Amino acid sequence: MRHRQQLPSPVQDDDALAALDLGVAFGSIENTTNCAGMALFHTFENNELLERVRQEVFSSISRQPLVIIDTEHLVASPLLSAIYAETLRLYVSTYTFINSPHADRKWRLPKGTTNLVNSELSHMNSDFWNTKNGAHPLQTFWPDRFLIDPADPSTGLTKSLNLNINGRKDDKPYFSLDGLEAAWIPYGGGRIVCSGRFMAKNAIIMVCAFDSRL
To answer: For residue range 156-175, what is the model confidence (pLDDT) as tens digits?
Structure first.
């Protein structure tokens, strides 16, 4: 925001800049606030999941009056990251503008055309996502969809279940978005992907972490 204010704007007056700032502020918290609430709702709805989250959180947040937070550990937590990713998969539906500036060749988009890609179609694609043989339909909240357990061949993000565990230092379940560039797109994609996605992830995870301590 500070950098934007310092940029020269010969065609925008103060009123235009104020309106633009309001739009940016609204867009930066609209989905973040709603998704944080839904992530928290599903966490408290499932006692087993809540207990798993609390075990993760208590190792990063002190129980003393002076709260000391290991934010890096929380944001890197596989379980909290999975809750965040599954919330966005289930509840965020956006349109992304796609333009084809290159020659037609093998692409279906004619050169020079602009199209809209709806994220919900990808997020609810039953031919792509792993439901563990129907035990966890795509319309249900299942954060373990984003956790890969090297010891369990039925885990994985997609139905192909191609696990990539080469070079891993341990055999613990881990969070991954590998191979989901065109399937998990709550922030859009390409050069116009939302620049606030890191702030949104931190905010959602911190809400879950603090409230799960109650």
So the answer is: 776 654 444 444 556 788 99
The span from the CA of 95 to the CA of 115, in Å, is 9
Q: Is residue 170 part of a domain?
A: yes
**Amino acid found at 77:** S
Is 8 inside any structural domain? no
Against a cut of 0.90, is the pTM above it?
Answer: no
- Tokens describing residue 138: 């795509």
Residue 3 inside a domain? The answer is no
User: 128-147 as b/e, with b when 16 or more CB fall inside 10 Å?
Assistant: bbbebeeebebeebbbbbbb
Rounded-to-integer distance, Cα 118 and Cα 137, Å: 20
Q: End-to-end CA distance of the chain: give it in Å, rounded.
A: 34
